[in-house]
């Protein structure tokens, strides 16, 4: 494995964690969005990651985002008969976003991002020091 591969691996992890942070931010932004029907209610989203594989199906390092899936957890319903979007029984539909889980996920993604930036910077310093050995 070449030292240059570290940049590819770390770069793929940075891209993946950026998508994870953006998805989590979207979930947090929609925590309190209200809907009158279950079909139009926001559902929490999560990215799906996988190891990057070469043509032979061997893991080559790095991560790729396969897609973003919606949570199948049940939606929240609250009794708010005075709300204009309440159904005939007086209930409104709220997203299945758990703010505590989302904050924990955001902290985890942020720390992973920071760790990969450190890997990137350390690798760069090692290459620079290697180049200066001949001086």
Automatic annotation (TrEMBL):
TM annotation in the entry: none
Keyword Metal-binding on entry: no
Coiled-coil regions, chain positions: none
Recorded superkingdom: Bacteria
UniProt keyword list: Bacterial flagellum, Cell projection, Cilium, Flagellum
InterPro entries named among the record's database cross-references: Flg_bb/hook_C_dom, FlgC
Subcellular location: Bacterial flagellum basal body
Glycoprotein is among the record's keywords: no
UniProt similarity note: Belongs to the flagella basal body rod proteins family.
Subunit organization: The basal body constitutes a major portion of the flagellar organelle and consists of four rings (L,P,S, and M) mounted on a central rod. The rod consists of about 26 subunits of FlgG in the distal portion, and FlgB, FlgC and FlgF are thought to build up the proximal portion of the rod with about 6 subunits each.
Protein name: Flagellar basal-body rod protein FlgC
Annotated organism of origin: Candidatus Competibacter denitrificans Run_A_D11
């Amino acid at each position: 494995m070449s030292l240059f591969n570290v940049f590819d691996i770390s770069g793929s992890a940075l891209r993946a964690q950026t998508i994870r942070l953006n998805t989590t931010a979207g979930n947090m932004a929609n925590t309190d969005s209200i809907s009158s029907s279950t079909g139009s209610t926001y559902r929490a989203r999560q990215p799906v990651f996988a190891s990057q594989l070469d043509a032979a199906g061997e893991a080559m390092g790095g991560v790729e985002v396969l897609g973003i899936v919606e949570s199948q957890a049940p939606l929240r319903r609250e009794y708010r008969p005075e709300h204009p979007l309440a159904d005939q029984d007086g209930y409104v539909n709220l997203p299945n976003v758990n703010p505590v889980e989302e904050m924990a996920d955001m902290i985890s993604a942020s720390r992973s991002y920071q760790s990969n930036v450190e890997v990137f910077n350390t690798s760069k310093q090692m290459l620079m020091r290697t180049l200066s050995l001949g001086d």
